[in-house]
Write a structure and sequence with these properties.
GO molecular function: mRNA 3'-UTR AU-rich region binding; NADPH binding; quinone reductase (NADPH) activity; zinc ion binding
CATH topology of the largest domain: Quinone Oxidoreductase, Chain A, domain 1
Keywords: NADP, Oxidoreductase
Number of domains: 2
Strand content: 25-35%
Distance between the termini: 18 Å
GO cellular component, one term: cytosol
Enzyme class: oxidoreductase
CATH class of the largest domain: Alpha Beta
CATH architecture of the largest domain: Alpha-Beta Complex
Protein name: NADPH2:quinone reductase
CATH superfamily of the largest domain: Medium-chain alcohol dehydrogenases, catalytic domain
Amino acid sequence: MRAVTADFVNRSDSPRISEIDQPTISDDDVLVQISYAGMNAADWQYSQGMVKTIPAADLNIMGFEAAGVVASVGRNVTGFREGDRIMFARTRTTGESGTFAEYVAVPANLACRVPDWMSMTEAAATPICFLTSYIALFADDLGNAKPGQKVLIHGGSGGVGSFAIQLAKYGGLSVAATGRAANRDYMIEMGADLAIDYTDQEKGIVAQTREWAPGGVDIVFDAVRQNTLPDALEALKPGGTLVSIATTLDTSNLEEQMRASHARGFRHVMCFAHWPDRLEKLPIVNILECQGIRIPPVEVVELADLQSAIGRLKSGHTRGKLVLKMAGE
């Protein structure tokens, strides 16, 4: 079967399409023929050996989430049958296969049935961004967000940011979000009360945030990268919380930055290492369906365009979500 692989050990310059054996399944797995696989910033970071949470191997299949059709089920699986449409995410922390492949073996307890109203492209775009946003904002040991609080979301037009804006509003928070000027209307449409152009050096992120929240915001959710740290801390109220998803990056000064945050009286917490053990515990479909939360715009990427798509992810300037086409609908 075809799969997109990367050499984690030698940190090859680019991922490649390889022919590998189709996986076998255990008694508790389902074999999924992948229709589309969600693409995330961690994919290009992973291909360059920057993701520290994945065990090193000479040949690793890329990808962290996907949607597809059940091709076969293990003997202990009762919740799914052949032909079911499912979506799922992989933690990748114990060496399991990625999702950029024609077939993937998935533990049945980590899969979620795709409802009739959701397309397969939307399903492939949902698990990682939704889970990351929800857990970062509301987990007790992370954002611990409460109704009436104010949150600043860095990266409001990306896949994570698009869900984060909506989920924060669902949780009763007021929301400011940063993005490019071209994405201002989009972030407002997602529900942001304030959309900040991060490229506007004259006004600045901190000044605009402080005008909106004079005492500072309760939470900053950094869905971008660590160089947003100075603005994040200046925007926070005393004792506020900075939640970052940048722990996938091999950032040498990360611990130093966290110590500096704590020394100033802020909580600085990381969410990437927290959500893998909670994948199966959130009712994604129920929240989407009952709360009217919209799935961000989805753009389909053909395998032939993989390299250019990874370049776009690296730039950080994608709106919504890219999904890689494997078998299609």
